[in-house]
Amino acid sequence: MKNGNILISGASVAGPALAFWLHRYGFQPTIVERAPAVRPGGYAIDFRGASLRVLERMGLLPEVQRKQTRIGAITIVDRNNSKVASMPDGFTSGELEILRGDLADIFHEATRETTEYIFDDSIAAMEESEDGVDVLFQSGRRRRFDLVAGADGLHSKVRSVAFGEEADFVRYLGYYVSIFTIPNYLHLDHAGLYYGTPGRKVGIFSGGDPAEAKASFFFATEPLCCARYDSAQQKEILRSHFGREGWEVPRLLEWMESAPDFYFDSVSQVKMKRWSAGRCVLLGDAAYCASPLSGMGTGMAVVGAYVLAGELAESGGNHRVAFESYERLMRRFVEKCQGIADGGVDWFVPRTRFRLWLSHQMWKILPYTPWKNMMIEVPLKIGNSIDLRDYEGRTGVC
């Protein structure tokens, strides 16, 4: 590799994290993002174990800590807003929790002077040759890069171009999720509420700006045929599934119409035998999405970016050696993180009245059992289940 010119698709979290480390090791990263700017809003994301150590090595841990949500008590309520049960403090937030939009802003600020950002564009096609990848963008421009990294999420364009159809890799878990910002009209203070009926769960959380809160909707259904970027259609789907629900749901659906950051997608995982093909490589949700229910997706992305960039530096830019090492070092960690969501979704959003009742009983007795600590300690143990190599002083440019 002569100059280490690397294109990264996706400017959310995994992409800028990779760009940060690539620049550190002497590569020249470029990020292309289909949105016109860094996307705001989004749900709260967790850091545990190794991912915290990566933030520390980036020098960004203090800034992330400054923006953390610090959500404590989460109360399960009935339609009359009476307490049914509660979840242990820290159960949903890991060692550190921050809103996705806040983290994306921090990563963008840390890389904007050292990374070329191309907004409002995306990859249309790629053609690989012996010494590079010719990329055609949706805008019509053409450029050549040494490598291409797909950090473009569950519906990765890089994955579809370089590896094949999405259906071959995405495993639908039977649920959809929607999250958006609302006014903090319930005056929650670093706390959350959950309300559920069979096959549906609604949450309201406040942990950042005291004037704002996040509304979350989960619901069970067969796979839906809806346009990925058609928010009007997605909002209609949400209304059709929750329009007859009580509690705060009618008001939340009203706030949905003016939400600046409406998000809607399936709850799915990505399973792949390989994360690289030739000069293309995947990381984050594009390669190993664990689903929002795992609480490990962003941590995996940040660790994966660190390992991928480090192995490219360690190999002197030899992408074949680096990609193989990246997969070998990350595979078991990814499998453990994805395993957290396997089988857990039916307990988080029970489909029957009996399982909903059983779930409430479990949460009622949990504070008085040894399981309380175990449910926090197991994800932390998994978050620490990868040893981070020290790549300091390496350079990847030949």
From TrEMBL:
Pfam families: FAD_binding_3. One of its GO terms (molecular function) is FAD binding. InterPro entries: FAD-bd, FAD/NAD-bd_sf, FAD_aromatic-hydroxylase. Residues 6-332 form the FAD-binding domain. This is FAD-dependent oxidoreductase.
